[in-house]
Write a structure and sequence with these properties.
about 180 residues; four-stranded mixed β-sheet; 8 strands; Translation Initiation Factor IF3; single chain; alpha/beta
Length: about 180
């Protein structure tokens, strides 16, 4: 017999630290008020601020809860929330995360095959991605680790100006290193 486990209840404040308080959710006695035109009204009692917001048919939104007293602005909360989401999305799109691209070389790779891998690696590095270069030795190739090391080092030299994040490592018959572009 299996027992169902229930997740513990979490209050919305605990889940979303950026919960913006609006109108009657603001529980402080006084606020620093900014009206709908962007003009400062100074420190005002919360009841008066709510009254001014109702007269303007807008919402009283807590813009800076950490201020002393908290800063509140009279505005359309739906429009404000939409603009905040739009700004967050724009920042998320702008911050591209670097990816780790993998290239695998073989022990006997020479000439055109090696040139193709070099061109691929250069393309990845131009896109500001890191490149992991691997070479796996099989069977009797494992006895020639020195040749594999030379091939890997030549490959990195042919890439041009790069910086090695992780030096050449050997784990049994597997050689690997990570190369990143110079910013």
């Amino acid at each position: 017999m299996q027992i169902k486990r229930r997740r513990p209840f979490k209050r919305p404040e605990m889940e979303d630290k950026k919960l913006t308080r609006v109108n009657h959710q603001i529980k402080v006695p006084q606020v620093f008020l900014i009206d709908e035109n962007g003009e400062s009204q100074g420190t005002v009692a919360i009841a008066e601020a709510l009254k001014k917001a109702a007269e303007a048919e807008l919402d009283l939104v807590e813009v800076n809860p950490k201020g002393n007293p908290p800063v509140c602005k009279i505005m359309n909360f739906g429009k404000y929330k939409y603009e905040q989401e739009k700004l967050a999305h724009k920042q998320k799109v702008a911050s591209k995360k670097t990816e780790l691209k993998c290239l695998r070389l073989t022990f006997k790779m020479k000439g055109a095959d090696l040139d193709i891998r070099i061109e691929q690696a250069k393309k990845f590095l131009e896109e500001k991605n890191q490149v992991k270069v691997e070479m796996i030795l099989k069977g009797r190739e494992k006895a020639h680790g020195q040749l594999a090391t030379e091939t890997m080092n030549d490959f990195v030299k042919k890439l041009g100006e790069t910086k090695s994040i992780q030096p050449l490592q050997r784990l049994g018959g597997k050689f690997s290193l990570i190369v990143a572009p110079i910013n």
